[in-house]
Amino acid sequence: MMELEKLKLSDNNFWNNKRVLITGHTGFKGSWLSLWLHSLGSSICGFSKDDGDEFNLFNFLNITSEIEHHIDNISNNRKLSKIVEDFQPNVIFHLAAQPLVRKSYKEPLLTWSTNVMGTLNILEATRNLKNKCAVVIITSDKVYKNNNWLHGYREGDELGGHDPYSSSKAACELLTNSWRLSYCGTKINQNPNLHIATARAGNVIGGGDWAEDRIIPDLIKASLGKNDLLVRNPKATRPWQHVLDPLSGYL
């Protein structure tokens, strides 16, 4: 378990016996989050598409039998709603997404439908929850309008997004804020049990990342195949963080 249970959170005991639903649980961050929460004693329900990659971290961890494991598309709102209704989660982490910028140019419809309608589907599934539930919608640091500033962006800065991926994630922020104002609370048509936030993380690195269009996986794959490494944007500057850093923030 990589001694994940020893990593410091504000209250590790909080997660013991909590029912946690994770969308995108077979992805890179989702796999690490599933493992971490399992080590803390959470009851986990995962909903994700089938990755189909032989190097997939989730398959390597071999924790399928330890969690409630569902393979389907986030666009299947009927099945997703049924799972949420049956599982009655205390916490939801929504990580399911089409996360690749280059792929978003090639498949904008897939990107927008997955990232925006997928988010709408998980929010819609929570409308009638009877127990208190915290929902964390994971977007991206790319949601901001790119002004080419030297300083880092702040939460109140203008949203934007030039490419389909970035703009779809900015749209998720607008969608989630609208949903929170419309359906969280004590007014008519609102649910007082729902508490919803978004979280914006940047580029992550760490063990088990074999995803497409990532600099370190590309380096390893090129080395294994004895091929030259293609650096797509050699002049670009990127901030990096270890995968457990944003996950600790989500938790």
Q: How would you characterize the overall build of this protein?
A:
By secondary structure, the chain is α/β, with parallel strands linked by helices. It contains eight helices and eight strands. The chain has helices spanning 28-39, 57-61, 77-87, 101-106, 108-125, 164-183, 215-224, 244-250, and strands at residues 19-23, 43-48, 68-71, 91-94, 133-138, 194-199, 203-205, 240-242. Strands 3-2-1-4-5-6 form a six-stranded parallel β-sheet, with helices on both faces. Strands 7-8 form a two-stranded parallel sheet. Strand 2 (43-48), helix 2 (57-61) and strand 3 form a beta-alpha-beta unit. Helix 3 packs parallel to helix 5 (108-125) and helix 5 packs parallel to helix 6 (164-183). The chain starts with 18 loop residues before the first strand and ends with a helix.
SSE diagram, text form:
Layout: E1 19-23, H1 28-39, E2 43-48, H2 57-61, E3 68-71, H3 77-87, E4 91-94, H4 101-106, H5 108-125, E5 133-138, H6 164-183, E6 194-199, E7 203-205, H7 215-224, E8 240-242, H8 244-250
Parallel strand pairs: 1-2, 1-4, 2-3, 4-5, 5-6, 7-8
Helix pairs in contact: 3-5, 5-6
